[in-house]
Design a protein that fits this description.
CATH class of one domain: Alpha Beta
CATH architecture of one domain: Alpha-Beta Complex
Largest sheet: 5 strands, antiparallel
Shape: globular
Number of helices: 3
Strand content: 25-35%
Distance between the termini: 21 Å
Mean pLDDT: 88
Amino acid sequence: MAILKIARMGHPVLRRIADPVEDPFDPEIQRLIADMAETMADASGAGLAAPQVHAAKRIIMFIVPAERATLEGEEDRPRGLSVLINPVIEPVIGPGGTGMVPGWEGCLSIPGLRGIVPRHAHIRYRGLDAKGQPVEREAKGFHARVVQHELDHLDGILYLDRMPSLDLLTFNEEIRYFPDDLSELAFRGRDATSNDRTPGTVRDGSGTPE
């Protein structure tokens, strides 16, 4: 295993649409997954996508730390390392609303900054795990947020692209100047769903998400 170099904002690999993995058992894919896990742990990240380590493949991994889980159900319980190959998600929309919630996000590819990003509160996702076995789950809370953040990387999308206003971007040290209640703050400026391209949708062709 090896610690890989993390691509930073501005590198073209972060704007590519990643290629599907044809063979999860390919030794190079298995080596990439192992190296990604070591890299994510070394960087103290909550999630990592293959494009962030200069590999344009549809692979993500994430954890749900105990301190970020709500413990309200299976959809948002603490999770150890989860690997998803060729993941796809769909929002689960409840009655009476868009199902979008604001929250802070950071990214290993955009060090030192945090932004308030609207995300689907409830999602369903599927893919293959590191052993090539099918995975299908529902997710809420931080679990849903980190999966959406990482899948965005596979489509060349950074969390900055999802923000309704760059006024909601700040250095980590300055978060204390923002209110605890993000509900109105996060949806100002323009329609928060105007850039809502669901990550991981099939096309022909941080403790924060990272």
